[in-house]
Design goal:
By secondary structure, the chain is an alpha/beta fold. It folds into 2 domains: about 1-135 and about 170-305, CofD-like domains (Rossmann fold); about 135-170, no CATH class. Helix content is about 40%, strand content about 20%. It has helices at about 10-20, 45-55, 75-80, 90-105, 110-120, 150-155, 180-185, 200-205, 210-215, 235-240, 250-255, 275-280, 295-305, and strands spanning about 1-5, 25-30, 35-40, 40-45, 125-130, 135-140, 145-150, 160-170, 190, 220-225, 225, 230, 260-265, 280-285. Helix 1 runs parallel beside helix 2 (about 45-55) and helix 4 (about 90-105) crosses helix 5. The N and C termini lie close together (about 10 Å).
């Protein structure tokens, strides 16, 4: 049984590789929900949707998010009518958000809705939101203003410096049904190559998750999203630096050393393996760039080997 702690694009690609080497029924994805947002009255869960769309083969592979063969008529009409529609919602994608919002308003939980969405897309693995309670990543800009994560990430194209990150609602958040059990029962827990600050950070902050991981640390392995000092996608490297941390595999090791015994680092970072070990995590050097489905599958194999499965 493999449990993967996941953010969005990088985690989804890793999970697709994991499913090429592990039966789907043995894989559980525990997904970040702190970048969820309500837009135009609709509940949008970007990381959950990216995972489900990717694993079902419905993702727009070129963009890395949203559905393939998408149209944008509703968005164009909203903008023509004068709405500040800065978040791209495709016509087909709107169907997902309408479905989710309708069921949530009827009293179903995010876990319930996510399970129905995964089943509708034919997934054989489990996809669990880390929590059913609302959590919101709030980003404090270097200017002093605080904004929601999607405003920072999409509206401002993550092009401004930050000084802090917090997770609003975390005090009330509880692990969703099945999450702690999926961690405890797993033969291996993988921390996917997602942004350590805003994708994995909120997952670890949910009550009980870090404690459950720490209790079985020797069977947990992380995959670094930082390669040669840079993030392959997104602002993880800049966020780490702006928060006063090291934007390298060593910085990632320091983030995860209490919950993971091993860290898979790219071959380009092999010279930093001793520093990773000095940070308290066993380095595993392997190709980590998932340039193809086969490369993602090989990364999953090497990751599993790191915990002697």
């Amino acid at each position: 049984m493999i449990t993967v702690l996941a953010g969005g694009v990088g985690a989804a690609r890793y999970l697709a590789g994991q499913l090429r080497v592990t039966p789907a029924a043995e894989v559980t994805a525990v997904v970040n929900v702190a970048d969820d947002v309500v837009l135009h009255g609709l509940h949008v869960s970007p990381d959950i949707d990216t995972v489900i769309y990717t694993l079902s083969g419905a993702i727009d592979a070129k963009r890395g998010w949203g559905l393939a063969d998408e149209t944008w008529n509703a968005l164009s009409e909203m903008r023509a009518l004068g709405l500040d529609a800065w978040f791209n919602l495709g016509d087909r994608d709107l169907g997902t958000h309408l479905f989710r919002t309708t069921l949530l308003r009827e009293g179903q939980t995010l876990s319930d809705v996510t399970a129905r969405l995964a089943a509708a897309r034919g997934l054989g693995c489990r996809v669990l939101p880390v929590s059913d309670q609302p959590i919101e990543t709030r980003v404090q800009l270097a200017s002093g203003d605080e904004i929601g994560f999607q405003e920072y990430f999409v509206r401002l194209a993550h092009g401004v410096a930050i000084s802090a990150v917090r997770f609003a609602g975390m005090d009330e958040a509880r692990a969703a049904p099945g999450v702690l059990e999926a961690v405890a029962a797993a033969d291996a827990v993988v921390i996917a190559p997602s942004n350590p600050v805003v994708s994995i950070g909120p997952v670890l902050a949910v009550g009980g998750v870090t404690e459950a991981l720490a209790a079985r640390r020797d069977r947990n392995v992380a995959v670094s999203p930082i390669v040669a000092g840079s993030a392959l996608k997104g602002p993880a490297d800049r966020m780490l630096r702006e928060l006063g941390e090291e934007a390298s595999v060593v910085g990632v090791a320091r983030r995860y050393r209490d919950v993971a015994a091993a860290l898979v680092i790219d071959e380009s970072d092999a010279e930093l393996a001793p520093a990773v070990a000095a940070a308290g995590v066993r380095p595993v050097v392997a190709p980590t760039i998932m340039s193809s489905p086969e490369a993602a599958a090989e990364l999953a194999r090497r990751t599993m080997a790191a915990v002697s499965l």
